[in-house]
Design brief:
This protein is of the alpha/beta class and 272 residues long. It has a single domain, classed as TIM Barrel (Alpha-Beta Barrel). Helices cover 22% and strands 22% of the residues. It contains six helices and eleven strands. The chain has a nine-stranded mixed sheet with strand order 3-1-2-6-7-8-9-10-11, covered by helices on one side. The chain has a two-stranded antiparallel ribbon with strand order 4-5. The radius of gyration is 19 Å and the shape is globular.
């Protein structure tokens, strides 16, 4: 197998989503996707890209990361096991300092498109981890996540009904999820919200890893692509305020998020 990947763009920006939102991140956007979600804002990555040698990808990531000089950020939030939570609730656990994890900056995220369509993304992620980077991957949830290096933090979508791709969810991925992963629901309609609630309860997802509810930002004319699926008929649009208020009213154990980069820059701007 050729030691290459088809790359759409590589750039340094701020992480706009996930539990790492707001922190510096190098994005490696790979070309191609086999889904056509109704809200996709990176349709340009379906076909645009150039072939890169893996060593050149690594060199570019290192170059963009170099100004940070191995600076790190600490994370003192740790997930307790159910036994620890029970002990703490009854005052049986000794007072301990928080477990601090230090992450090298910037993070590196593999995104797309769908990065798992390219087999060489697996050795690329391994080499980035070997370099000491905290590596994230954004994946649609339609592909097997098991082969990914265990050091990688997997941010996996579960496609909701308004995406037009709900039938593509690979439910076999659920048992492979671990505490360092994150599950993202992109929500644009009332039907999406109710469906997401059902999946969280059915699979007890909140006990596995952080859950993200991401509101669907309307596509600008520049982002629209004729190949995207249509939102199925009969669904009721949900505003971001509606979504936030429903989460509060239902006491859902999820993180509401908007795409931070679209607040800072124009929604259609690339490389941010």
């Amino acid at each position: 197998m050729s030691d290459t990947l088809v790359v759409n763009e590589i750039y340094l920006s701020l992480q706009g989503e996930s539990t790492f939102a707001g922190l510096p991140c190098v994005f490696v956007r790979l070309t191609a996707c086999n889904l056509r979600c109704s809200y996709c804002d990176t349709a340009y990555a379906f076909t645009e890209g150039k072939k890169w040698q893996m060593d050149d990808v690594l060199a570019r990531v290192r170059e963009l990361a170099a100004p940070f000089s191995n600076q790190a950020v600490g994370d003192d939030v740790r997930r307790l096991t159910s036994n620890e939570e029970s002990a703490a609730a009854h005052g049986d656990r000794k007072s301990e300092p928080p477990h601090v994890v230090s992450y090298k900056l910037p993070f590196v995220e593999l995104t797309g498109g769908e990065p798992l369509l390219q087999p060489n993304v697996l050795p690329l992620m391994k080499r980035l981890c070997d370099d000491g980077f905290t590596v994230l991957i954004e994946t649609s949830g339609a592909h097997d996540i098991a082969p990914i290096d265990p050091r990688v933090r997997r941010i996996m979508d579960l496609k909701c009904p308004s995406s037009g791709e709900v039938e593509r969810n690979r439910w076999e991925n659920i048992p492979h999820l671990k505490a360092t992963d994150e599950v993202k629901f992109v929500i644009g309609t009332v039907e999406d919200y109710e469906w997401a609630k059902e999946q969280i309860a059915k699979y007890n997802l909140a006990a596995i890893c952080p859950l993200l509810f991401s509101w669907v930002a309307p596509l600008t004319p520049e982002q629209q692509d004729k190949s995207l699926k249509k939102v199925p008929a009969g669904q009721t649009p949900l505003t971001r305020r509606d979504l936030a208020e429903r989460i509060i009213a239902d006491a859902l154990p999820v993180r509401f998020q908007v795409q931070m980069h679209k607040v800072i820059w124009s929604p259609e701007q690339r490389g941010v």
